[in-house]
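subagent[fold] <- orchestrator: predict structure for attached chain, return tokens only, no commentary.
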Amino acid sequence: MVQEILSTDVCDLGPGYLHACLLPEQEIQHAFSVALSRYGPAALTYGHNWGALPYRSALARRLTQTTGVRHYPENLVLTPGTSQALDTLISKVARPGDTVLVESPTYDLALKIFRHRGLRIHAVERDPHGLVPSALEDAIETIRAKGGTPAFCYLIPTFHNPTGALTPPDRRTEILTIARRHTLLLVEDDAYADLYLDGVPPPPSLAALSGFRDVVQLGTFSKSVAPGLRLGWLAASTEFCEGLAARGVAISGGSSNPIPSLALTEMLRSGSYEHHLTTLRIQLAEHRDILVDTLRKALPEDFIVRRPGGGFFTWVTLPGDFREREAVAAARNAGVIVAPGSRFGAATPEIRLAFSAHSPDDIHKAARSLGSAWQKRK
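subagent[fold] -> orchestrator:
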């Protein structure tokens, strides 16, 4: 097991990954069998620098259908997931000492990647609707007044991690307008776009709205299928993709994970991916509702428990007299591990709770334990 084994008396609501009951194991097994039968020895050799053409073609067709904007295989590069894609992208567009703009709060592991790469992090205000356009403009001008230029802006407009918020279309357009005015590259993490839980697809991505102008989009199947596949994509202009495919590591060994990509191609072609998504959305919505409804019933009104429209996470704002570390400690004493908002750069006391990694029964028990523990705050 690659995940830490915890006591059976402890429920960890920190990490965001799919519980075993949500993984399409049989569909994946069948897809691998079909892929190996269809492609034979070709599946076992080095992959194409950009990623297998069948994978990129099937993905382009799906993205065209779901976004209404034409995608081409030449706009896509296979990646092992969004984190690795982000690290690879940094090597192309930034150098140590450069500044990256991020939402506050934002994905904690992205912050670790930026720091590891020696980037300076400039936090930009976000509100319940996403990145605040005026704050983005102010941040750009502040950095330029000091003689610098932001390398890029990293943001998660669709079912934001950690808050679960969804940026509406007009706000997305404002952000794009500012980015174009300042020639600012936007890096859009779109990991949760397929996981809308109330039957309404999210607005078009920044990448789709821009036609890949000034935007690089990162996508993954780790959240919607299985993280063990290590499979995702980067969508950008053809010129940008050519630059990534020309890296020495890609020329030497080809793209990563050719066999899993061909298996996923079969899931896309056969319709099993869409069928799985339909079931997964229903299951995740059940998990979410159990967590949110149980907490709202158990906690006083001065706790704000948000119901996200998609993704894996519920964002809880604590009362002003309840310190974050006290909430984390009280939860741990009750047998529940939670993710403190400070990990994501939150400036106020917040808690992120994941509803994807446990069974409905375990989520219900954990929520009841949390409610009981947090009610007793001093």
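orchestrator: received. Logging for downstream: Residues 305 and 316 are 5 Å apart (CA to CA). The longest helix spans residues 272-298.
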